[in-house]
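User: For my dataset I need records formatted as: sequence, then structure tokens, nothing else. Please produce one.
Assistant:
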Amino acid sequence: MFGDETYLTGEQIGDEKLFQMIDERQILPTTAAPSPGAFQMAFQKAFDQGADEIVCICCSSKVSATFDAAGMAAKEFPRKENWRCGFAPVIPGRGLSGIESR
């Protein structure tokens, strides 16, 4: 988000436009986690296309609401196999500092 303007990454704004806006405005955007509904739609689409299982790799719940949103969506598919993996923050030069799986 740039102030009051919001964009959906990959659909409403791409990397080139994002970096152009950063350069022009001299500010960094803020981010928001996808909603549980967005995950639910993505999961449903995958199942509709024949997927039997879903592996969803997210940021750790300690740094983002993404992990929890994916978990809420997964509960909408009780008869399907869903796995969620939460990654700890990446430390520059050190790679992944840890991994958690459920």
